[in-house]
Design brief:
heterodimer, A: 274 residues, alpha+beta, 9 strands, 46% helix, 22% strand, elongated, B: mainly alpha, 9 helices
């Protein structure tokens, strides 16, 4: 047996997956070849490396999340998958036709004033202007989405829950203005914070997760102080979005992960207005 | 090549079979990795049976996913795995063990997730995400090294490596999960180890 033949069987030798005659032949070669002996030792060290890095335990929340998902109403296709309708070709055609007609009507009647792709593009342009330090950056979305200046109380009424954007954030960022935006997804409150007279943080409160606002940039999901956040890196600092009780927040201009952790920890959960 | 005498999936199964409930079928016990009526109850969508199945199997599913998609994403993907399991459980015919079928669903969901992530251009940022559990010193460094190297090799090779090195499955069992011949398992695993060693060395590993 030469080195090439032995090398092709080395991995299986390590796993105890060779037939006895093959094993004896490879072992005999390895015993007489320093190079192949080193290769086998390297495979063993790789296994040792895996064994030395234990995997974290199952999060206690997993079972609860699965139970919640299973308890939610089954989507139509699931019913279809198990139901009697699939046994009938006529039924299939009728259901398909009805679904297409329904989609057409919904599309025609409920088409938003600005489609979602446009929103993604606009948010990307806002991020770019923010990164350039453009003074009018925080007004861009307000101009596009019928932005109306509102007070903290107005914001709470519009959101149908108490706004989580406090008058002062992280000790030295103060509210400069709040806009109510008519976004394609929902009514969204944009709170602009300033520090030393210049825009510092821009804060959005919305109903659903909108990580796709960051779609044009590399992004990552990471756990921060026990909450899964979606993050993108800006020219300086980060933008992030994460869930709070009853909705989601998106912040642009966080200095670093440590500051983000302070925000995630510090924001009061959303509560219904009293 | 010979398969290992003691099947890991068999052990997985026999551990689960300790809770057999009356009324089981005459199915060969070595092929039955859950109380046989548990799968039947899950097919009837009994919530308690579904929860029991998750509790009995979640360790392996989550552990596999941590190595395949990373700790940050593993919980979300595990949730998807179980939703698929309960949607498709009527398709589980018993031709393979339930453990094999569950690993197959897990691997398929992980690969789908990785493809979606690639489409969304996820990338590493220049900071270190907070891990789910506190890490300590050297162990944390080694874990990060391994995670980065695993993330850099081809997903198909990563699956084979994880099923072998993390889940300790035999070549025969891996072949059954991935529906490939044992010879292909052997050659791909050899390549996975080679690629991983190259990546690890480029990251400073001296193994």
């Amino acid at each position: 047996m030469n080195c090439q033949e032995a090398n092709s069987l080395m991995s299986a030798l390590h796993d105890g997956e060779l037939a006895p005659d093959e094993r004896q032949a490879v072992e005999a070669h390895v015993a007489s070849c320093a190079t192949c002996s080193q290769r086998l030792e390297s495979i063993r060290r790789l296994t040792g490396l895996v064994e030395s890095t234990p995997v974290p335990g199952v999060p206690g929340s997993l079972l609860h999340k699965i139970e919640q998902s299973l308890a939610a109403p089954a989507p139509f296709w699931t019913w279809w998958q198990f139901g009697l309708l699939r046994r009938s070709a006529v039924g299939a055609l009728l259901v398909t036709a009805a679904a297409l007609a329904g989609l057409l009507v919904i599309w025609q009647l409920a088409s938003p004033p600005h489609d979602h792709h446009e929103m993604v593009r606009d948010f990307g342009e806002f991020l770019a202007a923010y990164e350039r330090g453009q003074p009018t950056a925080d007004e861009m979305l307000a101009q596009k989405y019928h932005g109306k200046l509102v007070t903290e109380a107005d914001a709470t009424i519009a959101l149908k829950r108490k706004t989580v954007a406090p008058p002062v954030l992280l000790a030295n960022h103060q509210v400069a203005k709040r806009y109510l935006l008519k976004m394609p997804c929902c009514d969204c409150v944009q709170t602009v914070y300033a520090r030393n007279g210049a825009t510092s943080l821009v804060f959005f409160e919305h109903e659903k997760e909108q990580s796709n606002w960051f779609a044009a940039r590399p992004m990552i999901r990471a756990e921060c102080r026990g909450t899964v956040c979606c993050l993108v890196q800006l020219k300086e600092g980060l933008a992030a979005t994460w869930p709070v009780d009853g909705g989601f927040v998106t912040v642009v201009g966080v200095r670093d992960v440590s500051e983000l952790g302070g925000l995630v920890d510090g924001l009061q959960p959303l509560k219904p207005p009293t | 090549m010979s398969s290992r005498a003691l099947s890991v999936l068999g052990r997985f199964e026999s551990g689960m079979a300790s809770n057999v409930i009356e009324g089981t079928s005459n199915e060969d016990s070595s092929r039955s990795d859950l109380p046989s009526d548990l799968v039947a109850r899950c097919r009837r969508r009994e919530p308690r049976a579904q929860s029991e199945l998750v509790v009995r199997t979640q360790d392996r599913v989550y552990r596999t996913l941590v190595r395949l998609v990373g700790a940050q994403e593993a919980e979300d993907v595990a949730q998807q795995v179980y939703l698929q399991v309960f949607r498709q459980i009527h398709q589980f015919s018993g031709d393979s063990t339930f453990g094999t079928w569950l690993y197959r669903v897990t691997v398929n969901e992980a690969l789908q997730h990785l493809r979606r992530s690639r489409r969304h251009r996820f990338a590493f940022l220049n900071w270190e995400p907070k891990a789910r559990e506190p890490d300590r010193g050297q162990q944390s460094d080694v874990r990060e090294l391994l995670d980065r190297a695993l993330a850099a090799i081809e997903p198909d090779l990563r699956c084979i490596f994880v099923l072998r090195e993390v889940e300790n499955l035999s070549y025969e069992e891996i072949g059954a999960v991935l529906r490939i011949p044992m010879g292909t398992v052997a050659s791909r695993l050899s390549r996975a180890r080679h690629d991983l060693q190259v990546r690890l060395r480029s990251l400073g590993w001296n193994g």
